[in-house]
Write a structure and sequence with these properties.
Layout (H helix, E strand, L loop, with lengths): L9 H12 L7 E4 L9 H16 L3 E6 L9 H14 L7 E3 L4 H13 L3 E4 L3 H8 L16 H13 L8 E4 L14 E5 L13 E3 L1 H11 L4 E5 L6 H10 L7 E5 L3 E2 L6 H9 L14 H7 L3 H11 L7 E2 L1 H15 L5 E2 L2 E6 L8 E6 L9 E6 L2 E5 L19 E4 L4 E9 L5 E9 L16 E2 L1 E3 L4 E8 L26 E9 L7 E4 L10 E6 L4 H12 L1
Parallel strand pairs: 1-2, 2-3, 8-9, 10-11, 13-19, 17-20, 22-25
Antiparallel strand pairs: 4-5, 5-6, 6-7, 12-23, 13-16, 14-15, 16-21, 17-18, 18-19, 22-23, 24-25
Helix pairs in contact: 2-11, 7-8, 11-12
Length: 553
């Protein structure tokens, strides 16, 4: 999201009001607080762009804070991977890297303060009993038998919980709010649970861990966050966020603001479901180019600038909606069209022998690197007697509007010469294996001095210089726009598209025009066998839709 092009949205209007009233005289501070239990995905990109760009817009700062309050699910590899992804996306938190675990001692001290104020108590109910006592959306909850436990007794038990005297699940610390509240989050929520597990940063120092709701607002306050931006699922948690902060003395009170999360068609961003896809082998890991994770998009060749532009383009809304995946692809194409170097590659090769080309002669053809950017310059492309062309660029008995190569027909080889097909060679099964052609030396550069025109231009590579490689062509991982809605009796996996990845071996590579945008797969390529991932195809349905809408206006 460009700081210069960021559009005015309802969050900015709220911030403007706070600055005008003096509630937050400045500087504005935001934070991006991921849980280190998976890798970041395209939905996180919106939150990252929003938090960092808003802070920059107001001359403030954005912190990176890991919400590491659940040691059974968090790992250092996710901490490091998320930092890599955020930097790749184009943002830097400088020296403002924090962890909720940095505040465990302060959170504990504040929890004791709430116990002494009779705002929290140690509860002996089991997790199942707490759920039962909680009530429903239509029925109020019931007070725990331990709700009126004396403060000193709760304080003693809480300290013994910290000392490790009790097993997992034996007791919890709960806030004392209102078991009849219509907001279920205010029905005496759990603040601490006993969990004898090794934490990725604090080791075995703790055996009680704060819940997200207890750690979140207090961590914001410690860091001096002014605006705590969350996705809409936390809207019902805001009263609890405010309640906790209001119980503590001399603690800054940030403003939580909720915005619509980013949802894409044909895409699932659920961590639980993504983990299932990885563990069951439906994809080749978190960086499989069909996944929505940022590391997968990077491996597929999506430029970070395109993702930032996309997040800016969809804007910031108060209501959830689903964005067509085509808009993301359109934005990627726009960026690559401006920046990507053009090269040629043949995915389904058919050999062409130019009979009147001198044996042993090699030539170099000058080709444009990017017709959208003159500063990209040109490159030299080897040319010789034997070439590879795309099999689809030849037909023996072409229909009327087929303008590529056919027996007796002349076409232009891109940047090179006019060639004419004079013979077709077949194997024993009748399959075309080779074309014999002639070239016109006067048409070097792709134009005829006598002014004659050809209807077709095709791409090619020199057989003598071609490198064999592998190309992976990707489609949506899920066949349906809403992959969460599965047929009756099945789950989201029923919507997986078995043809979401096509692997083409034996591709002739040198110089991929007309095929789409591709990038080298750094994970699987070798010097003698490159592997290319198709970032996106050339067909841009979204652009056509946009043009139609403009004409209507």
């Amino acid at each position: 999201m460009s700081e210069k092009t960021i559009r005015r949205n309802f969050i900015q209007h709220i911030i403007d009001g706070h600055l005008a009233s003096g509630r937050f005289p400045g500087p504005i501070r935001t934070r991006f607080p991921p849980e280190p239990n998976a890798y970041l995905h395209i939905g996180h990109a919106k939150a990252i762009c929003l938090n960092f760009s808003l802070a920059a817009e107001y001359g403030g700062e954005c912190n990176l804070r890991f919400d590491d309050t659940n040691p059974t699910r968090e790992e250092d590899k996710y901490v490091h991977g998320m930092q890599e992804d955020i930097r790749w996306l184009g943002y830097d938190w400088e020296d403002r890297l924090y962890f909720a675990s940095d505040y465990f001692e302060q959170l504990y001290v504040w929890a004791e303060e709430l116990i002494r104020k009779d705002k929290a108590y140690v509860d002996d109910l089991s997790a199942a009993e707490i759920r039962e006592y909680r009530g429903t959306l239509t029925e109020p909850g019931r007070n725990s038998p331990w709700r009126d436990r004396p403060q000193e007794e709760s304080l003693d038990l809480f300290r013994r919980m910290r000392a490790g005297e009790f097993p997992d699940g034996a007791r919890v610390l709960r806030a004392k709010i209102d078991m009849s509240s219509p907001n279920l989050n205010l029905r005496d929520p759990v603040m601490y649970r006993i969990l004898h597990a090794t934490h990725h940063r604090t080791g075995d120092d703790w055996c009680i861990y704060p819940t997200y709701d207890w750690a979140h607002g207090q961590s914001d306050a410690i860091e001096g966050i002014t605006h705590s931006l969350c996705s809409l699922e936390f809207e019902d948690h805001r009263p609890l966020y405010d309640w906790f902060l209001d119980q503590l003395e001399d603690v800054p009170h940030p403003q939580q603001i909720e915005f619509a999360r980013l949802e894409l068609t044909h895409t699932i961003t659920s961590k639980r479901k993504s983990l299932i896809l990885v563990q069951e082998g439906h994809v080749d890991g978190w960086d499989d180019p069909r996944m929505p994770t940022l590391r997968a998009l990077r491996r597929r060749g999506y430029p970070p600038a395109a993702i930032r532009t996309f997040c800016d383009r969809i804007g910031v809304a108060k209501d959830n909606s689903v964005v067509d995946f085509g808009l993301l692809e359109h934005t990627v194409r726009e960026e690559l069209n401006r920046t990507a170097l053009r090269v040629m590659g043949v995915l389904d090769p058919l050999k062409v022998v130019i009979e009147n080309w001198p044996d042993g002669k090699a030539d170099e053809i000058e080709a444009v690197n990017n017709p959208e950017d003159a500063s990209a310059g040109t490159r030299k492309v080897p040319f010789g007697k034997e070439l590879w062309i795309e099999r689809a660029d030849f037909m023996e008995d072409p229909p009327r509007r087929f303008f590529r190569l056919a027996p007796g027909r002349e076409v232009r080889l891109r940047y090179a010469y006019f060639v004419r097909c004079i013979d077709v060679i077949r194997d024993a099964d009748g399959r075309v294996t080779e074309l014999r052609c002639t070239y016109d030396p006067a048409t070097r550069g792709g134009n005829a001095p006598d002014g004659r025109k050809v209807r077709g231009t095709i791409h090619w590579v020199s057989a003598a210089h071609a490198i064999e490689g592998t190309v992976r062509i990707y489609d949506h991982l899920f066949a349906t726009p809403d992959p969460s809605s599965a047929p009756e009796g099945s789950d989201f996996r029923a919507n997986l598209d078995p043809n979401s990845r096509k692997v083409v071996e034996g591709v002739k590579l040198v110089q991929f025009e007309r095929q789409g945008y591709f990038c080298v797969d750094a994970a699987d390529s070798s010097p003698d066998r490159p592997v290319f991932n198709r970032t996106t195809g050339l067909r841009d349905t979204w652009a056509k839709i946009a043009k139609r809408e403009q004409k209507k206006v």
